[in-house]
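Service request form, structural biology core

Requester: graduate student, group of Dr. S.
Request type: structure prediction, single chain
Budget code: on file
Notes: please return the result as structure tokens.

Sequence provided:
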Amino acid sequence: MTTDQAICWRCLLAVRVSTLLAGPDGAIPEPLQPLAQAIINMPRPNTGCTWINQNPRVRELLRGLADGTIALSHEALDGLPASRTVEYLRGLLVTHGCLPPRDEHLASFDRWLTPKLDAIKDPDQRRLIERYSRWHLKRRLRDQARTAPVTVGAFLRAKQHLTVATQFLHWLGNRGRRLDECTQHDIDAWFSNGTTTRQHANSFLYWAIRQRLVRNITLPLPTSRTSPLASEDEHLNTLRALLLHDTLPAAHRAIGLMLVLFGQPLSRIVQLRTDQLRDGAEGLQVSFGSNWLNVPEPAAAVIRVHLTARPGLNTAANPSSQLLFPGFMPGRPMHVYAVANILRAIGIRPLAARSRAWLQMVREAPPSVLASALGISAATAMRYAERAGTDYLAYASIAKR
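Core staff response, request fulfilled:
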């Protein structure tokens, strides 16, 4: 494309945006001007024209914000029919300072909760579930949101715990009992029948015991599950695939390499920021916790390739994102489940690969040292050490002195 053509695309985009975001007086309202400038100045203006021209919902939303029929607030956007277009526009508004930031998983839980409570017909059960959600589930999500974004896993776990708690109370009601009348026989019957998801009632029942809403019951210990483990051959084949794959994008290869080299969960890798990487005399280094760790070659070369062309930076969504792996949605990283599915599609089992990485690392360094370097709990490191057959208990005792 020539320079003249590029200028034509930008002029066309500027006219389109200025028309859609024009207020009643013909000018773009001041609160929306940062959004307008971000769209007009995006590196590839033809992409912006396509986004506007091919999506009538985008045009409708921009007009609504400009003429005031849609208030410039999270609450107003929450009141619209849910869609990816609404969430994408919300992300743009937050990224460019038109709306204040908020934790979207926490907000999504609130939106999901309202109809869930409305569907509970028994008023006593509804009050119990509302109390449980407010003082246990939502409080835990808020506590997480104070230091980091609520993870997809925590969000889905909260939903599942509330859903199973609701099912338990309904099941108990069909047996003619309220929660304060629940007996050990009821508990045994609940956990001995049905699917394994019934174990998620433990969260609600432990909370009920602490609140003295139920007495004289003992809950079964949760069934322990052993994480899948990749063999050493599978581990080597995974490394080879990530280093040599000729069609997998560099971003996914980089994420996979951090998984198999450092045993980090995908949910944490996708949240990495560019300031957690540095490249100097000692080579490429990454920081997950309190230390800088060397990234061995040729894995470092793959990550450098990704750094030179991070995806998603050519639109108004992430023009100056500090996320190492920016995603499709403005201000958000790549979706962890999407990344996991892509890795599985080329034969990589994320949990199995992570377990193998940890078993190899704890054979080479004490788990307490690994816990500090990789930013995970000492208990997690010790669990992998025990599985690997290593004995660092004496070291751990000395380290605490």
